[in-house]
Structures are given as C-alpha cells and as structure tokens.
Specification:
The protein is mainly alpha-helical and 178 residues long. The protein has one domain. Strands 1-2 form a two-stranded parallel sheet. α3 packs across α6. The longest helix is centred in the middle third of the chain and has 54 residues.
Length: 178
C-alpha cells in the first residue's frame, strides 16, 4: 500500500513539475480592464451619464412634489379624522389611496425609464469596447483579457491593467449613433 501511495505522489509531483516548467505557460499573457471605469470616464460615457442625471433630477422633482402632496393629504386626514362624518372620511381615504397608487406608478415608471436609458447606453458602448479589447488582445498577443468589473478577481498584477489603454482608444474611435 505504501508503494502505491508513493507512486501516486511521484506521479503528482512529476505532473506538477511539468506543469510549472511548461514553456507554453511561460508565454501566457493575461490582461485586465474595468468596463465600468471605461464607460464612466469616457467622453461619450460622461455625456450619457449627464443625460441620465437630467432625467433623474426631473423625475426626482416631480416625485418630491407628489410626496409633499401625499404628506399634506395624510396630515389633513389624520387631524380631521375625528371631526369627519364616516362617508366624508371614506371619500378622503379613497382619494388618498388613489393618489398614493398614482405616486407608486410614477416612481415605477421613472425607474423603468432610467433603467431603459442605462440599457441603451450599455447596448451602444459595450460592443464597441469589446471590439477594442479584442483588438488589443490580438495585437499584443494576450491569451486572455478579463473584465474585472464583470468577473470578481481578488488580485491581479496592475502592470497588466489595460483599462487606460482601452479608455484612450474608445475615446479616440467611438462615434455615437445619435
């Protein structure tokens, strides 16, 4: 049994030595980039983010106005509840509930509009960035390039960080479709 155990360990050690000393592994070149950083810091990305902020600010103002209106109705309802007749109270509560549902729909619609715009931005930018990354990989003979924004990577050597190179090329070559 000890001979078989020793033989297994010998095979494992030989395999590991071959693996470590393999010339093919010595030639492997792996790069990294951050897609989110490229999008957020590119000229086109900054412009799109500004447009998104305008949408958010516009929606936020309308939503805050509706919130204030709801709060006012709720406060009036609470203050006057004991003084109102049951049928008047029922009407006021129904009005409040309807306005509250309208408010919820407004918030939902605003969020969906924002998500749609974000998806449109990604659909426009991501394919172009991927072309640039593939080009860099082919030109500079990378075996693998990983997007650290999409794939969690605990550590990578920053000398192989291609984010700035991808960003510069994206800024230089990207032409918005609008």
């Amino acid at each position: 049994m000890k001979k078989i155990n020793g033989l297994c360990w010998s095979i494992v050690i030989v395999f590991l030595v071959c693996l470590v000393c393999s010339p093919a592994l010595a030639e492997e070149k792996i790069g990294f980039y951050d897609m989110d950083h490229v999008i957020r810091n590119s000229t086109a990305g900054k412009k799109s983010i500004e447009e998104l902020k305008k949408i958010v600010d516009k929606s936020k103002a309308v939503i805050q106005e509706k919130e204030a209106e709801l709060q006012k109705l709720k406060d009036e309802l609470e203050k006057q509840r004991s003084l109102m007749k049951p049928d008047v109270l029922k009407d006021k509560e129904a009005t409040y509930q309807k306005k509250y549902r309208d408010y919820q729909i407004l918030v939902k619609d605003s969020n969906e509009e924002l998500q749609g715009k974000q998806q449109d931005m990604a659909k426009e930018f991501v394919p172009e960035i991927m072309k640039i990354v593939r080009g860099i990989g082919e030109r500079e003979k990378y075996s693998l390039i990983i997007d650290v924004y999409t794939v969690p990577v605990a550590y990578w050597n920053r000398t192989n960080d291609l984010t700035k190179k991808v960003l510069d090329e994206f800024n230089r070559t990207f032409k918005p479709k609008k």
